[in-house]
């Protein structure tokens, strides 16, 4: 029988360090989350390095790793040891010239339950991801694990209701969003409150519209690795929301933290029975959603 209740965690970290140190830090924090009772644990986006997409520099491709190498080996052993599911976002080298922003979903026995490749790739000032990442080609997927059915999307995917919907329609109980988002320091005073509010609002909306739990794992800290630039101040504020958009746990803007909340499948079913949005979808009228614009 599937678990009716299980505990999920997101880990909020400063990851402005070399890969070896970031790996040690992440392993330690995953252990701490498991010791607190977490059964499904997510790290932030691109866990093994600083956020290198602030510039377009071919030297940064050296940060990528082939499938099933360093990150997978380490977290596969850890998941098996602890008996937990771990979501491990990483910079994937698929082959020469093709790289992805990806995430392993590693099951409790250390096996790969699934692989997700980020579908929506941004290109904004100091978020130059299109230079590095080929758009994902695995689609939106719900991954069955020994703890529950989970969907993993990544950062820029947060803004797209279609991604959340297609994942939820496959049975996802939780949508995890490993994230690396922050403020340009010069813009924070003028735009910071609205930017952060929009980020939270859109994901809470995904929770409500789909009757799912949503969990976002962001990084923190000012990452100013380029000379003569202000860098990016990652805003933290990781959170877990329930199927009515209610905030179950939320982190600070500037501290490393573990957030834990309980997924209650009876509650989720009750919410969907009372707010039957899936029942009332007019799928006969949605054909134009696949068009770039309706001219």
TrEMBL record:
InterPro entries: Aliph_Amidase/BUP, C-N_Hydrolase, C-N_Hydrolase_sf. GO terms for molecular function: hydrolase activity. Residues 6-265 form the CN hydrolase domain. Pfam families: CN_hydrolase (PF00795). Keywords: Hydrolase. It comes from the Bacteria. This is Carbon-nitrogen hydrolase.
